[in-house]
Amino acid sequence: QVQLAESGGGLVQAGGSLRLSCGLSGGTFTDYAMGWFRQAPGKEYEFVAALSWSGGSTYYADSVKGRFTISRDNAKNTAYLQMSSLKPEDTAVFYCIAGSMTSLLRAHVSGRVGPKDEYDSWGQGTQVTVSS
């Protein structure tokens, strides 16, 4: 059973940076495309970023393009989300996702994350709070 464990969330001032990490266990890391979703208080889940198993293809929500960078280290079974120029509207619980590139791109293009069982695994979430 594939499990994901996120870390790196916290409280940061607007304009600051954070790096989220997501470690995968119980499976073969390169079998999965990886992504990040987020959920702000009172809102639906939102696609943030995704990348292919090789890391060669990356995709970003318009709201984070140019500020966030998704990456992965296949030797360490770990994905990352580097967040810079953070804004108060980035405040949310961030979730690491393992799944197919098809499912992640569907969330990106449609604007709808869809049910959790469309993805192979979700992390438990890590809180990111950006103060103004």
Describe the fold and architecture.
With 132 residues, this protein is mainly beta. It contains one helix and eleven strands. The protein has one helix spanning 101-110, and strands at residues 3-7, 10-13, 18-25, 33-39, 45-51, 58-60, 68-73, 78-83, 92-99, 121-122, 126-131. The strands form two sheets. Strands 2, 4, 5, 6, 9, 10 and 11 form a seven-stranded mixed beta sheet that branches. Strands 1-3-8-7 form a four-stranded antiparallel beta sheet, with no helix packed on it. A hairpin with a 5-residue loop joins strand 4 and strand 5 (45-51). The N and C termini lie far apart (40 Å). The mean pLDDT is 96.
Largest sheet: 7 strands, mixed
Structural Rg:
13 Å
Low-confidence residue ranges? none
> Gap between N and C termini, in Å?
40 Å
The helix-strand sequence is: EEEEEEEEEHEE
* Computed structural class: mainly beta
The average pLDDT score comes to 96
Q: Helix count?
A: 1
> What percentage of amino acids are in beta strands?
over 45%
**Spatial shape:** globular
Task: Walk me through the topology.
Elements (H helix, E strand, L loop, with lengths): L2 E5 L2 E4 L4 E8 L7 E7 L5 E7 L6 E3 L7 E6 L4 E6 L8 E8 L1 H10 L10 E2 L3 E6 L1
Parallel strand pairs: 2-11
Antiparallel strand pairs: 1-3, 3-8, 4-5, 4-9, 5-6, 7-8, 9-10, 9-11
